[in-house]
Amino acid sequence: MSVAATTSPAVGTLYVSRFPTSRGMPRVTMALRSNVISVGSILTKLQQDCATPFPVIRHVADSMTADMRAGLAVDGGSNLKMILSYVDSLPSGNEKGLFYALDLGGTNFRALRVQLGGKEDRVVATEFEQLSIPQELMFGTSEELFDFIASTLAGFAEKESEKFHLPHGRQREIGFTFSFPVKQTSIDSGILMKWTKGFAVSGTAGRDVVACLNEAMERQGVDMRVSALVNDTVGTLAGARYWDDDVLVAVILGTGTNACYVERTDCIPKLQGPRSSSGRTIINTEWGAFSDGIPLTVFDRDMDAASINPGEQIFEKTISGMYLGEIARRALVTMAEEGSLFGMAVPNKLSTPFALRTPDICAMQQDNSDDLQAVGSILHNVAGVESSLSERRIVVEVCDAIVRRGGRLAGAGIVGILQKMEQDSKGTIFNKRTVVAMDGGLYEHYPQYRSYLQDAVTELLGSDTSKNIVIEHSKDGSGIGAALLAATNSKYDHDF
Ligand code: ADP
Ligand code: MG
């Protein structure tokens, strides 16, 4: 729906009947008149600046493909780091035993254990615990953060029920999901390159995060070991692949975003040393750093400038959950300041960075009532304002423009990965069933985002080819995937 169609009639009538042009018009009337115009024009400009018509998504997909190739050619060859995961064999379904997983994401911290029963029994039992990461730990020291993780794990391990069995004399093994850019040096070690998603923990960058965790476990007296360091996308791919052999790509859309896929080792020029016997390995793209051709608004640029990593993670900043609400908030603040949206004063609460969260804009977009009651109450709770129906409609349009761009760009990125694989292995991707496993709170909970994403994929691939591409929420998420990778990389003898 266009802006003018939603907002102008109501506002226009008001303007014409109450404020006829006259030289003696009071100042407030002048202000209202221009304000009415400027809210509409700010919205139109926003919609234009973040529009993603076919040529834009086509360009993004092609550019993603080109950046992937450049990053595979040589380290530092492109924005995309194309990190080797050291995961050369995926779960087969035969895995057996008790394994743990830890997941440090961005918003949440999860600990999970799983008892695997092999091909027949599969997942015999799971238990998990989830905590949100205390805000102060995001800005604290490395020791504080890892001590928190180790002590949470210790508490969780103590509560292991009798459904779980560890053979005598063995250490509990962990798949550690760490969803930040890591230069992996082996399956169980990796150097943190930089924090993302608003984290600024001192003393971790440049260090092996497994060593950080091992040291913390020692300090906390936890007798466990990390067998696999796993990026969350890689965990999602492994977890989904456990159930379905057609899974070749995994994408996370949560607080941040990332994607990984199964690559042929002979297509990785930068790969040195021995190749895996399978001839395949998982590449972690770190696609959040992609930036070519992304349509940006003034609100994106301002948010980026105010962020802790200006100029970086531009794809992530336009498509992931940490940022969508904030971009919308910035647009609404400008509308309030320049167009008196919500009255003459700019609401204080709305002026607080990150006050409007992606789950809020998601909830507003689910409101199908005639008077947009839920939109009104969310605006009341978040921004402390009473809103008119026409104002609520504008708010929904703002959210929709930003979420549409996010979903469509994510879809274009997925097509970029798929077409790279298809170019190298003709007929193996587009002409057969290929599954893209999706996970993350944004994908899981935002129906409009999901459908914009699917629309872009269908537009780019055409309706026939896109029928072969199954984009689906991965039912176990990355947790079980990480535990499965701890199993396949267990230090103990195993025959799976
Ligand atoms: P993480 O990325 O921290 O591992 P999740 O995958 O659980 O975490 O995703 C959490 C993110 O998902 C939140 O930061 C938020 O942006 C988004 N999210 C959570 N709930 C919703 C919701 N109801 N609607 C839209 N987005 C949501
Ligand atoms: Mg996560």
From TrEMBL:
PROSITE patterns: HEXOKINASE_1, HEXOKINASE_2
CDD domains registered for this protein in UniProt: ASKHA_NBD_HK_plant
Record bears the keyword rRNA processing: no
EC id: 2.7.1.-
Domain Hexokinase C-terminal span(s) in chain numbering: 249-487
Pathway the protein takes part in: Carbohydrate degradation; glycolysis; D-glyceraldehyde 3-phosphate and glycerone phosphate from D-glucose: step 1/4; Carbohydrate metabolism; hexose metabolism
Matches recorded under InterPro entries: ATPase_NBD (IPR043129), Hexokinase (IPR001312), Hexokinase_BS (IPR019807), Hexokinase_C (IPR022673), Hexokinase_N (IPR022672)
Highest taxon of source: Eukaryota
Domain Hexokinase N-terminal: 43-242
Keyword annotations from UniProtKB, A to Z: ATP-binding, Glycolysis, Kinase, Nucleotide-binding, Transferase
Stretches assigned to coiled coil: none
Similarity comment: Belongs to the hexokinase family.
This protein's name: Phosphotransferase
Organism: Salix suchowensis
